[in-house]
Amino acid sequence: MSLYRYTIRRILQIIPVLLGVFTLTFVMVHALPGNPVRIYLGLNPSQALADELIRRYGFDQPLWKQYLDYLWRLLHFDLGESFMRKRPVTGLMLERMGPTVILMGLSYVIALPTALLLGVYSAAKHNQMGDHVSRFVGLAGLSTPNFWLGLMLIFVFALEFKMLPASGYVSPFEDPIAAAKHLVLPIITLATAQTATLMRMTRSSMVEELSKDYVETARAYGLPERTILLRHAFRNALLPLVTIIGLQLSFLLDGSVIVESIFAIPGMGRLGYNALLNQDYGVIIGLNIFFAILFLTGVLLTDLAYAYIDPRIRYD
């Protein structure tokens, strides 16, 4: 099967998955306790105003009719309107996309090479002091919750030493220096767990490859250790790593919700958090669909990368 046909088949397989994500999200948000109209209007709302809002947004309709109406709009690329903000969901998401993409992108750009370097170094120094230190650092990074690390960084670098701002966001297109200062702590918070996870996986894969017979044969032929390590063992160790690298995208999305809330970054994660608190159905469903598309795209690219890394893999 050619790469083109395989890609088309995988894209078509994404459609029923997205329908499942939409259906599950729709059912779950409507199963939440509470009433979004009551949350929006407060404790003692006017009954006439409440009835008008319920009728306007179709909350008085049966659930199956609301589902079909929303699905029909979705098929026309209309994510509806935010109940709380009275604005189109698509516009809100586009407005908040920039800070989230910058935060996630920089976190990944820092986490990936750092994890690969530490993992390869740790495997090369297997059971030596460098390996023990790297494993300890990796375990500590993996065991530290994002929210705790973020709060500790704020306490140390913002409150005690007053070196960096505690919260807020500045676009790098407006003021690059101020933007860098505001992004240092959120990026460290988001990248720490990713670095630790990828580093441990890199080390495990490399240790396994370095114990195989072809590595001993290469050493017997007198190949330099660096060549064996980087040209042969690392290439073979990449296959399981690619899977983890693709799946790490979902953890970045989860982490962005926490990090944006802690550091008051006006991104999509914070938008989703506030929408969940206020039961803003349109925003919750729109963000879930967007994150699902992003995650499935990452999985698709991961599958396509397999054949490039290992030519034995066929698109069958």
TrEMBL record:
It holds the Pfam family BPD_transp_1_N. Keywords: Cell membrane, Membrane, Transmembrane, Transmembrane helix, Transport. It is found in: Cell membrane. Residues 97-302 form the ABC transmembrane type-1 domain. It is a multi-pass membrane protein. Its main location: membrane. One of its GO terms (biological process) is transmembrane transport. The chain crosses the membrane at residues 12-32, 101-124, 136-159, 179-199, 238-265, 285-309. It comes from the Archaea. SUPFAM superfamilies: MetI-like (SSF161098). InterPro entries: BPD_transp_1_N, MetI-like, MetI-like_sf. GO terms for cellular component: plasma membrane. Belongs to the binding-protein-dependent transport system permease family. This is ABC transporter permease. It comes from Halorussus limi.
